[in-house]
Amino acid sequence: MAQDLPGAGEQVLLVGLGNPGPRYAGNRHNIGFLVLDELAARIGGRFKAHKGGAEVLEGRLAGRRVVLAKPRSFMNLSGGPVAATARFYKIEPQGLAVVHDELDLPYGALKLRLGGGENGHNGLRSISKSLGTKEYYRVRFGIGRPPGRMDPADYVLKDFSAVERRELPLNVDRCADAVEALVTNGLAAAQNSFHAS
Question: Which chain positions carry the site (Discriminates between blocked and unblocked aminoacyl-tRNA) (predicted)?
Fold first, then answer.
């Protein structure tokens, strides 16, 4: 059984998933990047290019040493940069939490878990393959299912709707709070605080 993040080691790795470049910045698939940007603002630092293939920021979050990372690869190739960054900082999978979009949750809902399947998420599939394990933490941000017969692959690459954008800053802030809770209090406490009743 993997340890809770608070006991995972000297520092933890927090990864946000998305696609690089301005064309994708507002996409539903990029919620991980938006949450990491909020965490970076809380730390008070800027991301810098790292040789592992990610933009990284080292700092302290709620008293813990953390490394924030946004892979510079496209979503379905996230595993390489995540694994390289984890190796560089000597962080084991139980010290890793990945923030990502989740089709199977209603918009704005949050679920935190350790391990499990990837639910067809290519970013998670790539990370699991590169790490050789599924036993890392996930912070799942609900984006809801596509309307009608829209292909989910098209839906995730569309920007949030006008209605969703109105609530987006609040939802991003709440997701960042959930990541902080996971880092400081562990999985069970974070789940109790942030899972919908």
Answer: 19
Structural domain containing residue 88 = 5-194
Give the pLDDT band (50/70/90) at residue 3: very low
Q: Which residues have a Cβ under 8 Å from the Cβ of 120 and sit 6 or more positions away?
A: 103, 152
* Number of neighbours of residue 143 by Cβ within 10 angstroms: 26
Does residue 1 register a pLDDT over 60? no
Q: Report, as residue numbers or ranges, the catalytic residues.
A: 29
Rounded to 10 degrees, what is the CA torsion of 43, 139, 141, 156? 100
Cβ–Cβ contacts within 10 Å for residue 10, how many?
Answer: 10
Instruction: Please check if 24 is assigned to a binding site.
Output: yes
CATH number at residue 184: 3.40.50.1470
- Is position 171 annotated in a ligand binding site? no
Which residue is associated with the tokens 């949050």?
A: 110
**DSSP label at residue 29:** G
Nearest alpha carbon to residue 59 among 43, 74, 41 = 43
Regarding pTM above 0.90, the answer is: yes
Closest CA to 71 of 117, 116, 124, 110: 124
Dist CA 59 CA 55 (whole Å): 14
